[in-house]
Amino acid sequence: xxxxxxxxxxxxxxxxxxxxxxxxxxxxxxxxxxxxxxxxxxxxxxxxxxxxxxxxxxxxxxxxxxxxxxxxxxxxxxxxxxxxxxxxxxxxxxxxxxxxxxxxxxxxxxxxxxxxxxxxxxxxxxxxxxxxxxxxxxxxxxxxxxxxxxxxxxxxxxxxxxxxxxxxxxxxxxxxxxxxxxxxxxxxxxxxxxxxxxxxxxxxxxxxxxxxxxxxxxxxxxxxxxxxxxxxxxxxxxxxxxxxxxxxxxxxxxxxxxxxxxxxxxxxxxxxxxxxxxxxxxxxxxxxxxxxxxxxxxxxxxxxxxxxxxxxxxxxxxxxxxxxxxxxxxxxxxxxxxxxxxxxxxxxxxxxxxxxxxxxxxxxxxxxxxxxxxxx
Length: 376
Description:
Layout: H1 2-15, H2 19-35, H3 45-54, E1 60-64, H4 68-85, E2 92-96, H5 102-109, E3 118-123, H6 133-144, E4 150-156, H7 164-172, E5 174-177, H8 184-197, H9 204-214, H10 218-232, H11 240-246, H12 251-263, H13 267-278, H14 283-305, H15 313-317, H16 321-331, H17 336-354, H18 360-372
Parallel strand pairs: 1-4, 1-5, 2-3, 3-4
Helix pairs in contact: 1-2, 1-16, 2-8, 2-9, 3-4, 5-6, 6-7, 8-9, 12-13, 13-18, 14-16, 14-17, 17-18
């Protein structure tokens, strides 16, 4: 089963140039994954939080993630038992470590709550940087001998695993990194869990269409699921037409389709795709996204010319593996020279917008037309 799972991303991206065909491959393999989830069981960090809430919370936590939504989701879960004790939330406090000295945080953590447990959330952590080591000693001492009635929770976007603070929490408490799914089967399982929490369902094929259309950012996916849940009302199964009707088209997915049209040198199709994108996205954002996308394609093409392998691209470009596979596949369809031309036109268009040569949308359209024109 693991072998099947590892190859889903490759098969999906290699054979699926359109949203509907991507949906088919998600459906085909999704049927297997939705059925055998127990065998490829994905233990998400949120599941660990829910389990801790049911049993016992550690006295000190450090949570970190580059995806803010995953932290927010976990924060909602950990607050449940504290709100059950006191619906007013007086036993939950959030402070900024940049504005609150360590000594004050320790004082707050040692405060006894009249309603039982206490949750102290500390955000905007400066503790991974050098300096003010003496002031932090009080925090380290507290971690070694904490108030058993308080759960002290530190939240960060990034961490320095070599810092004294990180090692102190690792020794005295629990460190958790909330990671986004990496592979297509992991996204399918993540989506299934999200649907279950909303009392909704999708067939595997519709789930594939949803992921292909909306993209792979947890917060955006959750927001679109909330919209679909309201739109569907008492109808518990989300259908393909519901997604077409209400869910947004992710700008990155639209850019992929746009560049496929450019690769086919179809001016009408490419301009049509651009107009679709501009109906829901700001022209400057589209230009920035397109420029970044072309830069990645050019990097993938250069990597291929040097003999690099697709499996190594994510590390080489510093992007997640799922996106790297899509970039690798698309870069193979576009000649290197065409990508160089595209990058040059993107930079010229950016310069034109900044110097006031015209409206961003108009310059974008001219750029796309030039993309499609053959050399000479």
